[in-house]
């Protein structure tokens, strides 16, 4: 599933195309994805409207007009591709948006083979009060002292620290890949209880979460299966992974073997010598 860096890269690319432009038409080729698409409301809020802002909250990309807010989620296999024509030329294209932008007319195609993504909308601009966002924790890159925040939230928590930092109610956007990478960089074993990690170690973990996410954003996201930017190019952070998906390979730091375990139905990768 695309994680925060991929969605951030997508949002930045779509912003260049859509922000400050006019969404002329929204054509939907099916009525639902993971949930029903509010087609009539979406058209009422956005067709013919100037798009004032394109931004990200957690793993959602949002667009804003004077009338309302549009919500896009990529699910597991979603893409938004910029095309020169409204005619779908990629299988599983479910929506096409005609945009009159600063660079002229263009088209954004929403493609999702497995249909786990979402297209939704609501009137107004109150994002934090919306059901999608009201229970979310802070953005990791915007949190002034992420380590201190995680330390305070973790007291008396018996869950493993990896599950804890992946909980969107604690902090958003730290998905499976970047949780494994951040814990390796901070030297913390993924099975250690969240409440047993010291303030000092959370300070380092908070720094490494930010550095890991920032490096991934700079590199363009992680390509493991389906992610593409709007121009169809892959992300490139996969070449910099230290532990994720490297079970049985030597640790790049100490030479020990990278191990793999299951936590909460997901694979965790770590070095037993570097992470305690």
Task: Characterise this structure.
Strand 10 and strand 11 form a beta hairpin. Helix 1 crosses helix 6 and helix 5 packs across helix 6. The protein has a 5-stranded antiparallel beta sheet. The protein has 6 helices and 11 strands. It starts with a helix and ends in a 5-residue tail after the last strand. It has 276 residues and is of the alpha+beta class. The mean pLDDT is 93. The radius of gyration is 20 Å and the shape is elongated. The chain has 2 domains: 120 residues, N-terminal domain of MutM-like DNA repair proteins (Alpha-Beta Barrel); 126 residues, Helicase, Ruva Protein, domain 3, CATH 1.10.8. Helix content is 25%, strand content 24%.
Total of DSSP H or I helical runs spanning 4+ residues? 6
Beta-strand content: 15-25%
Cα-based radius of gyration, to the nearest Å: 20 Å
Contiguous low-pLDDT stretches (5 residues minimum) are none
- Overall tally of domains: 2
CATH class of the largest domain: Mainly Alpha
**CATH architectural group of the largest domain:** Orthogonal Bundle
Overall geometric form: elongated
* Average predicted confidence as pLDDT: 93
Q: Could you give the order of the helices and strands? A: HEHEEEEEEEEHHHHEE
Using the coordinates shown, work out and report the CATH topology of the largest domain: Helicase, Ruva Protein, domain 3
- Terminal CA distance reads 28 Å
Overall structural class, as computed from helix and strand content, comes to alpha+beta
Strand arrangement, largest sheet? Answer: 2-1-7-8-6
Describe the sheet with the most strands: 5 strands, antiparallel
What is the helix fraction of residues, given as a range?
25-40%
Number of strands: 11
């Amino acid at each position: 599933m695309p994680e925060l860096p991929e969605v951030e890269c997508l949002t930045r690319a779509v912003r260049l195309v859509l922000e400050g432009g006019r969404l002329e038409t929204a054509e939907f080729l099916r009525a639902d994805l993971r949930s029903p698409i509010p087609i009539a409301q979406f058209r009422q809020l956005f067709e013919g409207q100037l798009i004032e802002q394109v931004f990200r909250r957690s793993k959602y990309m949002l667009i804003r007009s004077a009338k309302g807010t549009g919500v896009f989620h990529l699910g597991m296999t979603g893409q938004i591709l910029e095309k020169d024509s409204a005619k779908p030329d990629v299988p599983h294209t479910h929506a096409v948006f005609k945009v009159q932008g600063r660079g002229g007319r263009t088209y954004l195609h929403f493609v999702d083979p497995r249909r786990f993504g979402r297209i939704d909308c609501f009137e107004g601009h109150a994002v934090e009060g919306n059901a999608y966002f009201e229970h979310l924790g802070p953005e990791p890159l915007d949190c002034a002292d992420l380590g201190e925040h995680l330390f305070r939230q973790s007291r008396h928590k018996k869950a493993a620290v990896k599950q804890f930092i992946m909980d969107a109610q604690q902090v958003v956007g730290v998905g499976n890949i970047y949780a494994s990478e951040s814990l390796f960089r901070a030297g913390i074993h993924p099975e250690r209880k969240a409440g047993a990690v010291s303030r000092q170690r959370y300070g380092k973990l908070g720094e490494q979460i930010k550095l890991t996410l920032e490096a991934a954003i700079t590199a363009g996201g992680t390509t493991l299966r389906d992610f593409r930017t709007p121009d169809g190019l892959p992300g490139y952070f996969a070449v910099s992974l230290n532990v994720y998906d490297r079970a049985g390979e030597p640790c790049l730091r100490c030479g020990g073997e990278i191990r793999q375990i299951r936590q909460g139905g997901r694979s965790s990768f770590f070095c037993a010598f570097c992470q305690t």
